[in-house]
Write a structure and sequence with these properties.
alpha/beta, Rossmann fold, 7-stranded mixed beta sheet, 6-stranded parallel beta sheet, 15 strands, globular
């Protein structure tokens, strides 16, 4: 089968089209004929071995696919051992989910990781309450576009989007943000407070890191919460001092979606079902960010790392 493999860690240049043997499903596993592959920013970290979970060589990147089982069922799946950048993939039955007819592959893959991330951040990390203000950094990205829509649907009083270009800010406003500001503002703390009518903000969703995180924490109101779920800027924020958290009654939390599967009950499955229902009813929608042939995975990673993309990027293994 055709696949994309990494045999040495590095940037987009290490993604090489190759021919590999077809995977074989073992006990408790499902073989999937892949029709679309979802890309996440985390894929770029896996290729350079800078992600939370260490990568092992050689590897076929990619943790999410949409396709069909050998008996013809449409499914979307999380791949625990990666392997998604390929024409066929194998994963555990527990991480394979049926696709309703109303949900296309783009929507399914947008909700599988990025939509679920936005939902868990709003519900479990930051405990969004009616009327609260929510800052969504990188609001035109995969998680950001869903987070803006969910925050509005779930009762946020004011959604403040940040993005680096006028086009991205316009998209965030179209999706329901009340105001969109330049993420490169010289004093982001003051910019966020001003965007909230002169009041400090209740919630920040942050996947940037560095000074963006530092200035966002400084913009939080008493009992404000920051949910941290990525470091696209590849820059560490300043260490958080517990004394400062207590002094301002603020909360800083981190979230890695993998840990949701350790919670009692079917938290992930319930979340995904809810997201599919919201999408089917038109409450939220996926934003296409571009579709690349499988062999052009390098170009897709270059686009992701440029921070110039919007919405959800896909690979098409059929071309």
């Amino acid at each position: 089968m055709r696949a994309v493999q990494v045999t040495e860690f590095g940037g987009p240049e290490v993604l090489k089209p190759v021919e590999l043997p077809d995977p074989v499903a073992g006990p408790g596993q499902v073989l999937i004929e892949v029709e679309r592959i979802g890309l996440n920013y985390a894929d770029t970290h896996q290729a350079e071995n800078s992600y939370l979970a260490p990568s092992r060589l050689p590897l076929v990147p990619g943790g999410e696919v949409a396709g069909r089982t050998p008996d013809g069922r449409r499914v979307v799946a999380l791949l625990g051992e990666l392997g998604g950048y390929a024409e066929r993939a194998v994963t555990a039955e527990a991480t394979v989910f049926p696709l309703p007819d109303a949900i296309d592959d783009l929507t399914a893959l947008s909700m599988l990781v990025q939509g679920a991330t936005a939902a868990i951040l709003l519900r479990r990390n930051t405990h969004l309450a009616d009327g609260e203000s929510v800052v969504v950094h990188a609001a035109a990205g995969g998680v950001g576009t869903i987070a803006v829509q969910l925050a509005k649907a779930w009762g946020a009083g004011r959604v403040i989007a940040t993005a680096s270009t006028e086009e991205k800010r316009a998209l965030a406003l179209e999706l329901g943000a009340d105001v969109a500001v330049d993420s490169r503002a010289e004093n982001l703390t003051e910019t966020l407070i001003e965007a909230n009518g002169g009041r400090r903000v209740d919630i920040v969703l942050d996947m940037v890191g560095g000074t963006t995180t530092d200035q966002s924490i400084a913009a939080l109101a008493p009992f404000g919460r920051l949910g941290f779920y990525g470091m696209a800027g590849r820059e560490e924020p300043k260490p958080v001092r517990l004394r400062n958290l207590m002094g301002h009654s603020t909360t800083v939390s981190g979230m890695w979606l993998s840990h949701v599967f350790r919670l009692p009950g079917n938290v992930y499955g319930t979340t995904l079902t809810e997201l599919f229902d919201l999408a089917a009813r038109g409450v939220i929608r996926a934003i296409p960010g571009g579709e690349y042939p499988l062999a052009e995975a390098r170009a897709a990673h270059e686009a992701l790392r440029s921070r110039g993309t919007v919405g959800k990027l896909l690979l098409d293994p059929t071309r």
